[in-house]
Design brief:
This protein has a six-stranded parallel β-sheet. Helices cover 40% and strands 17% of the residues. The chain is α/β, with parallel strands linked by helices. It has two domains: 333 residues, Alpha-Beta Barrel (TIM Barrel), CATH 3.20.20.105; 96 residues, no CATH class.
Amino acid sequence: MFSFSITKTCKDTKARLGKFTTAHGEVITPVFMPVGTQGTVKAMLPEELIELGAEIILGNTYHLSLRPGHETIKKLGGLHKFMNWKGPILTDSGGFQVFSLGREQKCVRAFVRSCDGPEKTNAPRHYCLGGQATNQRTNEPISSKVTEEGVHFQTPIDGGLKHFLTPELAIEIQEALGSDIMMVLDECLPHGENEARTRSSMELSLRWAERCLKARTSQNALFGIVQGGMYKELRKEYIERLLVIASPERAKQSHVVNCVQGIASPPAADRNDGVNFNGYAIGGLSVGEPNELMYDIADHCTDFLPKDKPRYLMGVGTPEDLLECIERGVDMFDCVWPTRNARTATLITTSGDINAKNAKHKDDANPPDSACACYTCRNYSMAYLRHMYMCNEIVGSRLGTIHNLHFYIDLIRNIRSAIEEERFAEFKREFLKRRATC
């Protein structure tokens, strides 16, 4: 079960309040989703996330399918039971990690073989993830190869064993995990690809999106993903064609054809919107482009996306990014920024970001943020936090993560109130001013 409704729209911007309902509860939008990559939001217990006010978290299909394996998780009752999280879960398709995991090891992903040419081609596309990511048996660079059928890849997680991810398998894995919101499999390009290459990738991702829609057998929600690089016309065309793929009219036509061919297919009205996408994500941003370009493309996409479906900007971002993109009509966000920064001693505050290891905090009796009511700020000084980080104590990462996630969730709460009270523009202006001048 999945439903979405808009409850308030800002008069001066595209910002909006909404609510979606899943089998595991309701979520108010705008919303920030903490990232639980491997069945855990790093350094946090589920009970602590609930206390912070987290409404929905994100799981990583790529990692969970490799270990402990989606079949194992399904056998143990699904991801919710496995990780003891009773609220909604969104899972990605695994595509982004397949194409970009090497970047986390400071490797450069190089496009090795040109794929320009006909819109539909079976020519494989090779990506070298290179650097430290190597096959432990052959010492060759880990790589992925894209074909019409799916993507062949190796991963350093299991020593370079060969895997094959298809749109159908991406849906099968997410249904086994039991996620409330699933994502289609798409091809993820780095920033800077030319228009011909971007179109070729876009055509493939559209075909994969249709295959994902057809492969869906559960009542889990499924979101389409908009690609098209930094090319506005491609983005607009992608959205228009994605809507055609998801249209009930197309589904009815398909049903008629199936009946003529003797293929069993229930009417669209009996399929719980299974022939449609329940929401739409904007992919392919925050991949190295300037912030203003990211905001411009997100703004362009929300002009054409359906108003009655949630809009999710994948992998974004900083507090500033959230405000800018909520203003442009985005409803959902996820990012490792608050949790990863917490583990590297960066604390996010209303007065700017703090390096907790800085020597000036050695004798600092103040909390990280005097305006923050989180557990960390109520109980610990910067001097103590610096000591924990300098000693590489786990509690430093835990206290930092509690603070940073509280900051994000509280920011979202304040944004919702500002939209409801018709003062979003003023709130954004004052918030950004404080962050920029400190």
